[in-house]
Each structure stands twice: as C-alpha cells, then as structure tokens.
Design a protein that fits this description.
single chain; 356 residues; alpha+beta; six-stranded mixed beta sheet; two-stranded antiparallel sheet; disordered C terminus
C-alpha cells in the first residue's frame, strides 16, 4: 500500500491507543513496585509473584491446631521519640486453625521480667538487645523478646513481625481510614494531652495520624494540660490497639480495597518500608486462608487481668532502680497464673511447654 493509500488514524483512536499503552505501562510499573516491596518484607527474590500465585506453605503450629504470631510495634521511624527501640506495643495473635477460638492477647509493655543479658527490666526493653543470638530464635531484639514470651509467659511463638508506627499509620491511610467504637467512661470521650488526640464516644472514623495517636495514647498529662477518658492508662491503650487491628484487617479485605490497585500498592508500600518479619510469602497466603475462617465478631480481645480480686498482675516499684512496673500477683518471676491464662484460652494442656 502506498503512503497515500494508508488509512489515517483518527484523533480519537490515537488518544484511546495512548491511554491503553499508558495504562499497561502503569500496571507494569505498579507490578514491579509491589514486587520490590514484597521482596523487602519477605526476601523472596525474583520469585515473589510466582510464589504468591502457586505456593502455599504449611505453617508452623498448624498441625497442633494453633498458629501464634508475635506482633511488636516500635518507634524507630520517629526521631523525636525517646527510647525508640523499645516496643511500645506487644501483642500475640493466636489463630485456631479450626476457626473456633482465635484471640488477640496484649502483653503489657511494663511487665517486669528478667532479660538474661541485662537483669530485670520492663519487657519492652528486650527488643533493644541487639547481640541476642540463640539457635531456634531470630537474631537480635525480637529473638530475645520471643524467648522471654515463650519461657516466662508459656506462649509458643511460631512467627514474629516487628512493625514501626509509620507502617500502621500508612496502612490505615491506604485503606481509606478505619472506624471503631470509642466507649470511654467519661461522657466527653477521650482526650490525650501527650498526642493532642480528642475523640467523642461512639462510632468514629480515623485517618492514619489519628489512629497512630490513639495507638500511643494512654492519658499522660502535658504541660498544664490534663488528659481524660483513659483512666486505665496502658490498658486502655492496648484495648484500642486491638480494636484498630481488627478494624484494619476488616477494611483491608473489603472489595473496595481488594479491587483498587492504588490502595493495594499503598498497603504493600507501607509494609515494605516498615516491617521486619520471619513470615514468608507462602506463609502469608496460608495465613490469609486461615483468616477467612475467623468471624471477626468472635475474635476474642484479651489482656491479663490487672488488680482487684481477679487480677493476676499488680503494680510494682523496683527497690533498686525505683522504676514503676507490673509484676505477677504471685510475685516477681512467678508467671504461673499468666501461663495458665494463656492455656485457658488456647485450650492447651497443663503440661504444654513453650519450646521453639
């Protein structure tokens, strides 16, 4: 065909063609970006995509009917936060593989424990033990924390994830915010002078920064400013952390997020930059399958009972350092009631040991 005989493309056809090409390029770039972030978290190399599609792993603990994931949150991303390597949030997510009695258990950051290389400290200092290297555990602080949780609290740990607070904030923003129910004993709701967070009682929708502030809020007073609505301090904070984790998981699995490439990419970006874990990509696929069996309304939210007749932990002041902390009601280093508390909800036998 001669040049004169060629059919010229209309302007509309050219625009549509370039839009399609641009979309394909954008999808390709996004796929590479997601793959890059997956590799940062799961260290799966060039096979991230293939693994996600074709591979499912049997999880540690699955044959015994329960998979335990230790979650810890720190503030290493916040240069203005004192003690950023300390784990401000420590939580166990215990998944019943039969889908019957899964639960979340908050471990108080102020629990007084013996850190082998340091002596007695609050448990949130364990993550700062960078030289920890024991066979069967992750290296570094999370390995030390995992060992203490297993040995002292009698909780077998199958996997861990260390998440800095930026990941949580960005993940909430990535899903378009989360909604939780604030039920403070104060009719005004809650106000935290440290973070400036001010929320009414009832259903509230939080953006990433508000969720982060609530995850940190425990009613500390500021200079000339008085907090209210958080009478139980760190116990209120951990309760809100558990609430928000459930809300985030529920929102992340809605059709509005799963069918939105931009939101999916934002979620992977949040994780890629801010999460350390020994969970592999095939593990994630299997965890997602197990999570589908869990009714969120039946996911139990637990913490060790504090004070009173039924409490198993109490306040404590260390006579040497003068530091305020929490200890078992039966005394320093006597964790038998805390171990029994885990077994009660995990349906674990009395002789169950926490060997890794």
């Amino acid at each position: 065909m001669t040049k004169q005989g060629r059919k010229r493309w209309s302007r509309k056809r050219k625009v549509v063609t370039w839009l399609v090409v641009g979309l394909l390029v954008a999808v390709g770039i996004m796929a590479l970006w997601v793959n890059w972030n997956l590799n940062k978290v799961f260290h799966c190399g060039a096979q991230c995509d293939e693994q996600a599609i074709i591979t499912t792993a049997e999880l540690k603990g699955e044959r015994d009917g329960r998979v335990n994931v230790l979650l810890a949150g720190d503030s290493t991303d916040d240069p203005d936060h004192g003690g950023a390597d300390l784990t401000d949030s420590i939580m166990l997510v215990s998944i019943d593989t039969r889908g019957q009695n899964s639960f979340m258990l908050s471990i108080p950051r102020d629990l007084w424990v013996n850190i082998p290389s340091w002596g007695h400290q609050k448990i949130n200092a364990a993550n700062d033990v960078s030289g920890f290297d024991v066979v069967g555990y992750p290296q570094g602080g999370m390995g030390q924390l995992e060992q203490i949780v297993e040995t002292d609290l009698g909780v077998p740990v199958d996997y861990y994830a260390l998440i800095n607070y930026t990941a949580f904030r960005d993940a909430v923003n990535a899903v378009g915010g989360i909604t939780i129910d604030i039920q403070s004993p104060d009719p005004r709701g809650i106000y935290d002078a440290f973070t400036g967070l001010d929320l009414p009682n009832g259903q509230v929708t939080l953006n990433g920064q508000q969720a982060l502030d609530l995850a940190r809020a425990r009613g500390d007073d500021g200079a000339g400013d008085v907090s209210y609505g958080l009478p139980n301090s760190d116990f209120d904070r951990t309760e809100h952390q558990r609430q928000m984790l459930v809300a985030l998981l529920q929102k992340a699995t809605t059709a509005g997020v799963l069918t939105n490439p931009e939101r999916i990419n934002a979620l992977f970006s949040a994780a890629g930059n801010n999460v350390q874990t020994d969970i592999t990509l095939p593990d994630v696929k299997r965890l997602a399958q197990l999570a589908q069996q869990i009714n969120p309304s039946k996911l139990q939210s637990l913490t060790y009972p504090y004070g009173g007749e039924n409490g198993i932990i109490i306040g404590y002041t260390d006579p040497v350092s003068g530091e305020d902390a929490l200890i078992p009601k039966l005394g320093v280093d006597n964790f038998s009631q805390l171990q029994a508390y885990y077994r009660r909800y995990a349906n674990a036998p009395e002789s169950s040991s926490a060997a890794n």
